[in-house]
Amino acid sequence: MSETDPQQIPVARPKHDIVLRDHIYDGIQEYDQRLPNWWLWTLYAAMIFSFAYWAYYHRTEIAGTQETRFQKEMAAVMLAAASGGADLTDDQLWTMSKDPTVIAAGKQTYVTTCASCHGPDLKGGIGVNLTDAEWIHGGKPTEIISTVKNGVLAKGMPTWGPVLGQTRIAEVAAFVLSHHSPPQ
Ligand code: HEC
Predict the structure, then answer these.
(1) Most informative mutation of 93, 128, 144 for ligand 1 (most atoms within 8 A of CB)
(2) 152 lines ligand 1 (CB under 6 A)
(3) What is the pTM (predicted TM-score) of this model?
(4) Which of 94, 98, 113, 159 could form a disulfide with 151 if both were Cys (CB 3.0 to 4.6 A apart)?
């Protein structure tokens, strides 16, 4: 085949280190290059990072596994709750709302103290529904605590602060929160 042969499909003339594969489909010929170094390095870096991440978070106690970090956070929360609970933050209360022990304790208080008005399934009765997204006095954990503590006497919600004390109020609030999910 000469260069002027009309049958010959024109292909890129190899220049520098451009390597072409032999086959031609529909007149298209593929490059067969080595991947660029910057690309290869992002791959190697991702591999090294993923191994380090796995080792750090899942295999060693340096950062702690998800489980031990949760336990540590819970211990801090319970300490705050035991010392009066006044300083509990929204985040800490959300954390409490995921702890089965706290939920069980809160449920016990709820059943004996709140269910008569708010219903056994928290769906309301004399008192309002506590599972929906509608809050008259705010649905943030600290707002719920303050409603339960101070009550809404004019509307028939008793003042629970002196009756239950901080710890049981925090627990029952955590139980109510366990029917909700934290804002993303
Ligand atoms: C005697 C009846 C009664 C009991 C018992 C009672 N509540 Fe209430 N609760 C109400 C009423 C009525 C309201 C609505 C207040 C309003 O309209 O402002 C209310 C409101 C609330 C709210 C605010 C809801 C909102 O939308 O902001 C929370 C939270 C709450 N109650 C939690 C509790 C918890 C926890 C207990 C148990 C410790 C409890 N209540 C016991 C009657 C009761």
Answers:
(1) 128
(2) yes
(3) 0.66
(4) 159
Residue 134 CA to ligand 1 centre (angstroms): 13
Q: What are phi and psi of 90, to 5 degrees?
A: -55, -45
CATH fold of the domain at 69-177: Cytochrome Bc1 Complex; Chain D, domain 2 (1.10.760)
Please tell me if the CB atom of residue 147 comes closer than 6 angstroms to any atom of ligand 1: yes
Burial class (CB in 10 A: 0-12, 13-18, 19+), 77: buried
| CB-CB contact of 170 with 145 (8 Å) | yes
- List average pLDDT for each run of 10 residues in the chain, which is 184 residues long: 54 64 88 87 97 86 77 77 69 90 93 95 93 93 92 92 88 94 82
